[in-house]
């Protein structure tokens, strides 16, 4: 977890998240809030030996912290527990549920005591509905659910393409990209009344019933179609901004942006349904509406649209229903929420497995096996195992050989065999344990490069290989041992997880999911045949999926090249026009074009190109070409005023 859940990650993200939200980017704070809640739990647990020495207990802490993060983000303690159960944890025993609930309860109570909005609400967009819904509205609820599923599939597909483009071209321009996105978002969003304000404030307005404060004449029938057009534009523009913004090098969440998009679409549909009712009040379709009472509440459509979009992008069901219920406190709208989320789940499942978080894990190549998926490969593990394995003989290796083995290979560990000819398996030693053993041995005694290192495990019960855990670990070298030999046997795992070569691949995958080992050794009659890792399983899984659904990425790569060439050309054109201003020339000096700088820097912008320009210098106007160094070449013409 180093680098993902450490102290520096917590510190940097805690500072960067408020700056990101303040910049106005179309990203949310709820996802990063869950992340640094988990970081906090991981950092604090390191101070206690009980959790530091046990990975399973650490996972319980992380599950509880994730529940607390969601509870604080949405003011939903029960929804936070269910989110941790549905999305975060592959194993969720009863004691973990109780601890997650207690942690979420304390976090929510602390937030309520702080009263951050000075309104008594835990989140800004918390609302209450006192009107009932009608059965004819189920038709429109299904439309909202279909929109949620299509929204999730569309955003996931195009956001992954944007990530591929970003990974290929924009890796070296992270700061410039974030700055450009913030400026572009401000320019695009300001003309629209619903994009100009903060997303949480926008949802608060869209969720609200028409009684009370009316923002931008949202409830005025005279401005109805103008608001519909404005909401449609807000939906489309926000969707585009979410696709290009989520994944840039800033702390970014997608919960609230998706809910804001769903809310604007839902409010649009609610206004249209309200207009239909007012146009045809005597229609049999609206016969269940009571007279002299508002029949349609557009705010509830916005609320259900937010639930549909959140479910579509994350592929969540139960936790979304509970979170939305805790936001409104309306028991009457549990059934409509379940209908919307159910339709969203059905639609989104037809476009692929997993939400955007799962797709990001697959895109970045992390060796994560999703516990929610089931596979049927029908082959033994021997067909995908790695047969060429770097092993350590128990009979001994030179210290310099061990150090070269660690330097030349980045494996997480090495099988220990009796000798390389017989390949009889004795155990397994991890890379971290081996490096630690070598470092400790060097501290205890001066060792030569020819020192022999032995890994033979003692079978004598009277002399155990593992010493009891104490504050001061026992020395590796005994006082009577020679400096030309050293025993590393007590660092070996003598009972690694092993499987037979004919074991079904599905069973091996279940072992990885349930027990969580980093490697499984394949042995037959005590002889090492190979090993398998989660990456081997994922490679074969993607190979099978690509065989069933082949893809040709040639056209996508060509499109990326065209887009990048257009961006570079536009940047060069802007830079040349800006340099024509005298004040910019004085401030920046004479520099080459953007394309030239990238070309010399090894980027993908192509070779540097010269541009003709005119420069006023002490009353002399020079016309020439800019060479690759950014200097003015030999003038073709000189005119003195």
UniProtKB/TrEMBL annotation:
Residue ranges of the region described as Disordered: 597-641
Composition skew (Acidic residues), residue ranges: 618-631
One CC-aspect GO term: fungal-type vacuole
Membrane topology, from the record: Multi-pass membrane protein
Residues of the CBS domain: 385-444, 488-551
Main subcellular location of this protein, as a coarse class: membrane
Protein's name according to its UniProt entry: Chloride channel protein
PANTHER family: ANION_PROTON EXCHANGE TRANSPORTER GEF1, CHLORIDE CHANNEL PROTEIN
Pfam families: CBS, Voltage_CLC
GO BP term, example: intracellular copper ion homeostasis
Family: Belongs to the chloride channel (TC 2.A.49) family.
CDD domains: CBS_pair_voltage-gated_CLC_euk_bac, ClC_3_like
Localization, UniProt: Membrane
Gene3D superfamilies for this protein: 3.10.580.20, 3.90.1280.20, Clc chloride channel
Superkingdom in the source lineage: Eukaryota
Sorted UniProt keywords: CBS domain, Chloride, Ion transport, Membrane, Signal, Transmembrane, Transmembrane helix, Transport
Organism in which the protein naturally occurs: Orbilia oligospora
Transmembrane segments: 61-85, 138-158, 170-193, 228-247, 254-277, 301-325
GO MF terms, alphabetically ordered: voltage-gated chloride channel activity
Keyword Nucleotide-binding: no
Signal peptide from the UniProt entry: 1-16
């Amino acid at each position: 977890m180093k680098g993902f859940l450490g102290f520096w990650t917590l510190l940097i993200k805690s500072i960067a998240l408020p700056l990101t939200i303040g910049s106005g980017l179309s990203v949310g704070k709820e996802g990063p809030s869950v992340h640094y809640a988990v970081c906090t739990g991981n950092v604090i647990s390191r101070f206690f030996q009980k959790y530091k020495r046990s990975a399973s207990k650490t996972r319980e802490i992380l599950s509880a912290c994730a529940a607390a993060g969601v509870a604080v983000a949405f003011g939903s303690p029960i929804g936070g527990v269910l989110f941790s159960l549905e999305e975060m944890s592959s194993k969720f025993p009863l004691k973990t549920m109780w601890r997650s609930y207690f942690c979420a309860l304390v976090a929510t109570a602390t937030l309520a005591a702080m009263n951050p909005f000075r309104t008594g609400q835990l989140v800004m967009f918390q609302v209450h509905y006192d009107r009932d819904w009608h059965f004819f509205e189920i038709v429109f609820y299904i439309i909202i659910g279909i929109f949620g599923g299509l929204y999730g599939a569309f955003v996931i597909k195009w956001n992954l393409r944007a990530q591929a483009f970003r990974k290929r071209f924009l890796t070296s321009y992270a700061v410039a990209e974030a700055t450009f996105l913030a400026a572009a978002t401000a320019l695009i969003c300001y003309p629209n009344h619903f994009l100009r304000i903060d997303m949480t404030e926008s949802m608060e307005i869209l969720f609200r019933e028409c009684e009370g404060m009316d923002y931008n004449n949202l409830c005025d029938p005279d401005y109805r179609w103008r608001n519909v057009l404005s909401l449609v534009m807000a939906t489309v523009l926000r969707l585009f901004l979410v696709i290009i913004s989520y994944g840039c090098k800033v702390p970014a969440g997608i919960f609230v942006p998706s809910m804001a998009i769903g809310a604007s679409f839902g409010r649009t549909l609610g206004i249209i349904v309200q207009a239909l009712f007012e146009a045809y009040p005597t229609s049999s379709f609206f016969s269940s509406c009571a007279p002299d009472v508002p029949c349609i509440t557009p705010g509830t459509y916005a609320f259900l649209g937010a639930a549909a979009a959140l479910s579509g992008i994350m592929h969540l069901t139960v936790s979304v229903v509970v979170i939305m219920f805790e936001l409104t406190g309306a028991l009457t709208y549990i059934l409509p929420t379940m209908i919307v989320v159910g339709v969203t789940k059905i639609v989104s499942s037809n476009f692929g497995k997993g939400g955007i978080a799962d797709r990001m894990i697959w895109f970045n190549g992390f060796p994560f096996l999703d516990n929610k998926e089931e596979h049927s490969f029908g082959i033994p593990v021997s067909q995908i195992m790695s047969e060429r394995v770097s092993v350590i003989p128990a009979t001994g290796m030179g210290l310099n050989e061990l150090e070269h083995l660690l330097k030349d290979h980045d494996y997480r560990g090495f099988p220990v065999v009796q000798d390389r000819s017989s390949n009889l398996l004795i155990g397994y030693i991890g890379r971290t344990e081996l490096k630690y053993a070598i470092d400790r041995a060097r501290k205890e005694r001066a060792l030569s490069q020819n020192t022999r290192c032995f890994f033979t495990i003692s079978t004598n019960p009277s002399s155990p290989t593992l010493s009891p855990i104490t504050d001061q670990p026992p020395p590796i070298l005994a006082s009577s041992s020679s400096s030309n030999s050293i025993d590393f046997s007590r660092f070996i795992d003598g009972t690694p997880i092993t499987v037979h070569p004919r074991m079904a691949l599905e069973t091996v995958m279940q072992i990885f999911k349930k027990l969580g080992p980093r490697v499984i050794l394949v042995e037959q009659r005590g002889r090492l045949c190979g090993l398998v890792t989660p990456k081997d399983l994922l490679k074969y899984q993607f190979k099978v999926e690509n065989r069933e659904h082949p893809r040709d990425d040639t056209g996508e790569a060509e499109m990326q090249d065209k887009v990048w060439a257009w961006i570079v050309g536009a940047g060069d054109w802007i830079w040349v026009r800006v340099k024509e201003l005298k004040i910019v020339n004085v401030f920046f000096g004479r520099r080459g074009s953007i394309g030239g700088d990238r070309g010399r820097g090894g980027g993908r912008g192509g070779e540097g190109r010269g541009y003709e320009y005119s420069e006023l210098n002490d009353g002399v106007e020079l016309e020439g070409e800019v060479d690759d160094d950014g200097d003015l070449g030999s003038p073709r013409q000189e005119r003195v005023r």
